[in-house]
Structure to design on (341 residues):
């Protein structure tokens, strides 16, 4: 028994690695460095299995067994290196670094544990510019849930309700349209008025942790039945003022909400003003104040040219009159009879 222990101790001294246990996240790589003695010309290998006698060789230094993700490099007196890339979840287990010998191989075990990376708090990113006011015309808006860290991340979108939140879909992208908002109303058996100040959020999770994003609010603008209009309020994103102009503010604009009772005439005037402003932006592509300034400058230039031409004509007429009077005076002087001496 003592002889066997001494042999194993001597073998362990002949082959030593810098790590006995390796813990690495999913998808990462690791490098194992080993040193050995007096076995320069022997074959080195990397095998997997609980027992050193039954482990499966994955790769060796002589190239008899190859692998796409495992590489072994024997640099003789400078040591032995094992590199494993693109770690998978099933790579966890017990491995062995071995050196061939005629009677008993020199081997040392290494334990590998592959873990998942916890997810980070997701952020919301619109795929179209909210400052263009497309939602006020009923256009679609896609909001993407972005998680910068984590492995095997799963995405879900929820609507915050009481007593428990409602699952909308299992994907990273949420597409908001008039039809989808109306479909949400029907599926939840609610009226569109109840969707005002609706809170939506994204949830990310894996087997290690879970996080949720900040909420975005969707407001249906009246009248929602005849012409669908809505506004998306997202943290850190500008908000389009549907009635006046484009503003970069984080708080909801007062012109996009109905406070108190509004008379039908006032509502129609607001709708007509909104449609006129939006049409001007659609056909011109520039703000209303810039259009008025440009056309005002052009009109001033035209008026100046007209005044200048009129003044030139008047001045020319006066000059012609003066020249005609001078000629008449000269003719009169010449035609006057001279008096006798």
């Amino acid at each position: 028994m003592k002889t066997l222990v001494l042999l194993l101790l001597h073998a362990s001294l002949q082959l030593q690695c810098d790590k006995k246990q390796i813990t690495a996240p999913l998808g990462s790589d690791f490098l194992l460095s080993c040193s050995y003695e007096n076995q320069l010309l022997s074959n080195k290998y990397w095998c997997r299995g609980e027992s050193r006698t039954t482990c499966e060789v994955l790769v060796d230094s002589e190239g008899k067994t190859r692998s796409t993700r495992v590489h072994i490099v024997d640099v003789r007196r400078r040591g032995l290196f094992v590199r494993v890339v693109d770690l998978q979840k099933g790579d966890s287990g017990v491995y062995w670094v071995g050196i061939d010998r005629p009677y008993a191989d020199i081997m040392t075990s290494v334990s590998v544990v592959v873990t998942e990376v916890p997810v980070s708090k997701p952020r919301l990113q619109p795929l179209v510019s909210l400052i263009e006011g497309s939602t006020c015309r009923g256009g679609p808006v896609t909001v993407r849930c972005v998680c910068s860290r984590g492995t095997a991340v799963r995405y879900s979108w929820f609507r915050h309700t009481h007593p428990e939140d409602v699952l909308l879909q299992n994907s990273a992208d949420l597409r908001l349209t008039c039809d989808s908002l109306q479909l949400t109303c029907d599926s939840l058996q609610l009226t569109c008025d109840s969707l005002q100040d609706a809170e939506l959020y994204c949830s990310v999770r894996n087997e290690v942790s879970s996080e949720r994003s900040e909420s975005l609010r969707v407001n249906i603008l009246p009248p929602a039945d005849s012409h669908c209009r809505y506004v998306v309020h997202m943290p850190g994103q500008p908000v389009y003022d549907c009635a006046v102009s484009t503003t970069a503010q984080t708080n909801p604009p007062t012109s996009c909400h109905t406070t108190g009772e509004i008379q039908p005439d006032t509502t129609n005037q607001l709708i007509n003003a909104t449609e006129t402003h939006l049409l001007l932006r659609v056909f011109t592509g520039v703000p209303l104040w810039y259009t008025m300034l440009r056309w005002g400058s052009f009109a001033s230039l035209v008026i100046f040219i007209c005044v200048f031409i009129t003044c030139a004509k008047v001045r020319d007429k006066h000059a012609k009159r003066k020249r005609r009077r001078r000629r008449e005076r000269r003719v009169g002087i010449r035609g006057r009879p001279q008096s006798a001496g």
Observations:
- The longest strand covers residues 106-115.
- The radius of gyration is 42 Å.
- Residues 58 and 180 are 53 Å apart (CA to CA).
